[in-house]
């Protein structure tokens, strides 16, 4: 799924050129005057919106309604993504805790049942790896 930028851009540009002193046979050079307007936002420039309204009455309300619906949709998708990220992080923490507990308990079981070296390595290694990931993760978050 392609992601859009958070800020939608709907530029409305208007260019006008007016020729003055056409220079047709009178020796004056040709001059051109150019005016440019640039508007950026989720809806067209008010002048452009007014022109749409003149062409099709009610279109300004439709365009503004479309922009409002699009914004509501973007907010909804952003909230869904945030909830998914939170759930993913929580599930990762739960599974890491369960895995760590299983490894430490397995090491303890092995140590109690006659394999103290293996049990110590398994339990201590599991505990050390969990602590190092926790500490490194905290440092990266700051």
Automatic annotation (TrEMBL):
TM spans (from-to): 94-112, 118-137
Keyword Ion transport: no
Comp. bias intervals (Low complexity): 10-19
Keywords assigned by UniProt, alphabetized: Membrane, Transmembrane, Transmembrane helix
Keyword ATP-binding annotated: no
Record field: compositional bias (Polar residues): 20-29
InterPro entries for this protein: RP532 (IPR019284)
Protein name (Swiss-Prot/TrEMBL): DUF2335 domain-containing protein
Organism: Alkalilimnicola ehrlichii
């Amino acid at each position: 799924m392609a992601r859009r930028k958070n800020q939608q851009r709907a530029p409305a540009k208007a260019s006008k050129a007016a020729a003055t002193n056409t220079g047709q046979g009178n020796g004056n050079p040709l001059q051109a005057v150019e005016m440019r307007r640039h508007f950026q936002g989720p809806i067209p420039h008010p002048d452009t919106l007014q022109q749409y309204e003149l062409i099709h009455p009610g279109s300004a309300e439709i365009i503004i309604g479309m922009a409002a619906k699009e914004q509501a949709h973007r907010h909804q998708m952003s909230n869904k993504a945030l909830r998914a990220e939170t759930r993913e992080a929580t599930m990762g923490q739960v599974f890491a805790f369960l895995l760590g507990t299983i490894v430490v308990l397995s090491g303890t079981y092995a140590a109690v049942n006659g394999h103290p070296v293996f049990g110590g390595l398994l339990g201590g290694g599991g505990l050390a790896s969990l602590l190092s990931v926790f500490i490194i993760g905290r440092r990266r978050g700051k």
